[in-house]
Amino acid sequence: MIGFTCRDAGVANQVHRHSFFMLCLPFEFALQSYSPHHSPRKPLELAIARVNVYIIIIMHFFSQAFNYDHPWSHVVIGMWHKYPNPHCTHVVTVDVVDRSVDPATGIIRTERVLGCKQKTPGWIVKLFGGSEDAFVREISFVDPTTQNVTITSINLSLSQFATCCERIQYTPSLQNRTSFSQTAEIQARLSLWRSAADRLESWLVTRFEQNAQLGKVGFSDVLRTMWEERHAVHA
């Protein structure tokens, strides 16, 4: 196995990008077939072909961390009202699939499916199929005792070619603020098509980073509308 890593770190909001490229050594398997020249009086001959198959796995890691200027309870309430908002127009539907409360711990588990609609490059549609519609599965855990929210999500569309695993966490911070951390592992895995894997992975990374920044701006506006403007009106 051959691999190397690279890193690009942004200072302002503690944004980090890590890339890891892994090339698995070839593995062999045997293909058995009948020899076209075998004699019926002799034992059947087997033609054994050994084929080397290279599987390319390309991974990118994205992370960012910052604080929202709102208490944890306000952020938790606000996250259920994050969509729709004018900054994240790519999220068009949000469907709650399941919601339950653990009677022993009080932890609230919610599973949702987010429907997104964004323009997809023509070459992706031609090579991998699909359309501008994409779906993401999201599972969140809200622990009111420890004041911790953990959200994990993974793409359902094009998952046979690439995966984007995201993890978000909200925890209380100093001065009545809320700490936000986000990590994502983006992995394109394609057999033999190195150039296609590179292009798909690059497009996924760019799209995720754009949406992450839109999500930050959009959620900040939602929190400001819900709490700051509401308090100003009542004041």
Could you walk me through the main structural features you see in this protein, from its secondary elements to its overall organization?
The chain is α+β, with helices and mostly antiparallel strands and 235 residues long. It has a 9-stranded antiparallel sheet. A two-stranded antiparallel sheet has the order 3-4. The radius of gyration is 24 Å and the shape is globular. The chain starts with a strand and ends with a helix.
CATH superfamily: START domain
The oligomerization state is single chain
Spatial order of the strands in the main sheet? 1-2-5-11-10-9-8-7-6
CATH fold call: Alpha-D-Glucose-1,6-Bisphosphate, Chain A, domain 4
Overall number of domains: 1
Category from helices, strands and their pairing: alpha+beta
Number of strands: 11
At the first level of CATH, what is the class?
Alpha Beta
Average pLDDT metric: 79
* Order of helical and strand elements: EEEEEHEEHEEEEH
Shape: globular
Rg, nearest Å: 24 Å
Question: What's the story with the biggest beta sheet?
Answer: 9 strands, antiparallel
Q: Give the strand content.
A: over 45%
Low-confidence blocks of residues: 1-12, 20-55
CATH architecture: 2-Layer Sandwich
Total of DSSP H or I helical runs spanning 4+ residues: 3
| Euclidean distance between termini CA atoms | 64 Å
